[in-house]
Amino acid sequence: MCRRFTTVSSLLLLTAGLAGFQSTQAEYGINFPPPAADVAQEIYDIHMLTMRIATFLLLVVFSFVIYSLYFHRKSRGYQADQNFHNTWFGNWSWVIVPALVLGVDLTIASNADTVLKKVWDVPKDEKLMDVKVTGHQWWWEFDYLDHGIKVESRYIPEEKAGDLYLREVDNRLVLPTDTKIRFLHTSADVLHAFWVPELAFKKDAIPGYVTETWSEINREGVFRGQCAELCGTWHSRMPLVVESVSPEKFQEWVNEQQAIKVATAAEAASTKTWSKNELMTKGKALYETKCAACHQVTGLGLPPAFPPLNGSHIVNGPVEGHLNMVINGKPGTAMQAWGSLNDLEIAAIVTYERNTWDNKTGDTVQPTDVALAR
């Protein structure tokens, strides 16, 4: 009866194991994402070589283990060899096995060293397109140095992003295919790290330093990454989205961005007196893009690091103090200087903050007021 029960149990376990194996077949294709650059492909190839070697060694080791468990088990009456350590293999296995392992390591390392040099050594004898990547708490800034374009990239809130929450941004990093691109990495505050797996590299952005990497994207597509350095409370809200397009489409995008830049500059430089409603509309959009990450859409902030603006003595105090805080920031705190915004943008944000939530100052700040405050 006991033997029969054991046999039935074994069959049930075998059946469950086969069923579990079949259910995992759908996930068999999970691996690194398909590379989008030649260097990334080389890294992928090293990964696959490592996995093949590891799988082969796993099979060899398990074969020995299974063989020993079956043929040397106690139920067969096998007696353990008490003098194995004095045999030829017993003496030399301590040298042979580590030597084989070292040989495997060196096989992988030699290829890896060559690829690493390609990743870190930026081509010097060719014309490259330069993109400066600046990490902020918690968003990315991309400067297309050859085109005079600046793009700010922030995560999209869950209600708008849906399934791509923390994987989608408002402005993607648009790059051309078949073009060597040099990335210049730095940070405005703490350590960040630019990481898009399909492009082959991960590079730290260090405050006060500029480091460089490069890539040449060989196909069109959308590639997602994220900040790979723990940079603070909202580290998870720093996704990266790269959209690669053909050189022709990229030039069209550049022309559009340059036209928007010219129109924005002209609008900000005009002497027009803006109505309160116009400033509130612009200010709401700008606040939710640039300020809400820290101070929240509700204006309640995240104390103590990010104080509330709703009911704030600065927001409800003199306009001059409010403008000074926005333009120059506050040293020693997370409040950075926003003087890089144009006069109209700052005027709109300040007007919105002073006339929303429970703040009802009634003030209307004009771009000329911001110009004087600078």
From TrEMBL:
Localization terms from the record? Cell membrane; Membrane
- Any Pfam family matching the protein: Cytochrome_CBB3
EC number annotated for this UniProt entry: 7.1.1.9
- Name any GO cellular component annotation: plasma membrane
Task: Read off the PROSITE patterns from this record.
Answer: COX2 (PS00078), COX2_CUA (PS50857), CYTC (PS51007)
Family annotation (InterPro entries): CcO_II, CcO_II-like_C, Copper_CuA, Cupredoxin, Cyt_c-like_dom, Cyt_c-like_dom_sf, Cyt_c_oxidase_su2, Cyt_c_oxidase_su2_TM_dom
Q: Name one GO molecular function term.
A: oxidoreductase activity
Q: Which residues form the Cytochrome c domain?
A: 278-357
Give GO terms for biological process: ATP synthesis coupled electron transport
Protein name in UniProt: Cytochrome c oxidase subunit 2
What species does this protein belong to?
Answer: Sedimenticola selenatireducens
